[in-house]
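Appendix B, example 12.
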Amino acid sequence: MTVQMQPAGPDGVVERGPELVEALPSRFRGLVVEVGQVGQLTTALFKSAVTRPTGYWADTLEEMYGLLRFCYISVLLCVGGFCFLIGNYAYNILTLVGAPNRLGFFFVFATAREIAPFCTGMAVAGVMGTAMTAGLGARKVREELDALKVLGMDVVRTLVLPRVLAITIMTVAFNLVGIAIGVVLAALAGCAIGIVSYGAFFDIFLANMTAPELGGTIIKTMLIGLFIGIVCAQKGLNSKGGAEGVGRAVNQAVVLCFAAVWIFNFIVNAVLLGLNPDMLINR
């Protein structure tokens, strides 16, 4: 009887990872594989960026310019429209309770904490995230990525790292611009249309916009942008099945990113408010 020996790892330990994955039910097997692929890609990106921190910034700036061209209209419309609409609703409600001058406090947590990060994440995922997945997926199914590997090029460093960095940086930048636009439109809703003075609005807004509030929204959008970049890249790099497979990968990527925006928004807000309870004080 022939006994099949399991291959040993570099430390002499028998590796049973593939066997354990195959033993899982089919509905969980794909999830475990995809999580592992995301972890491997994240490790490769951080290792490449830290060990060799030069050589990719020119491509990153080019990708950032592309993001600015494709996303600024979506971000402006989403953030501006939501803020102006909610500004009118908030002004009417606050007027009913006799406190229309507190509109500035309302927009600290309405815009900086909720609307701007949410709308920015949705716009970036829906515009650039899908484009990134489709571009990498098309190269994958046409076997261009395999050709680049044969030529000795690092696909992760050349194609993925600049895109992930660009999405992460521009998500933070779009969020900060969105906050500024939202506050201006909220001021128009309460001051130009309503009876609140501009001085009272901005005085209360700046009094409540603390450093933890601003730092929290930056950290939140940075995590959202990083997640969008890595997940969209992973879906594109592992596309298969021709054009239909690329479309399926794009659909899966955008659904995951939309869900992640909600999850990151909730978790970061909960942690931030737990560590800084003073943020709930109406100044």
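The CA atoms of residues 101 and 150 lie 65 Å apart. Residues 1-16 have pLDDT under 50 and may be disordered.
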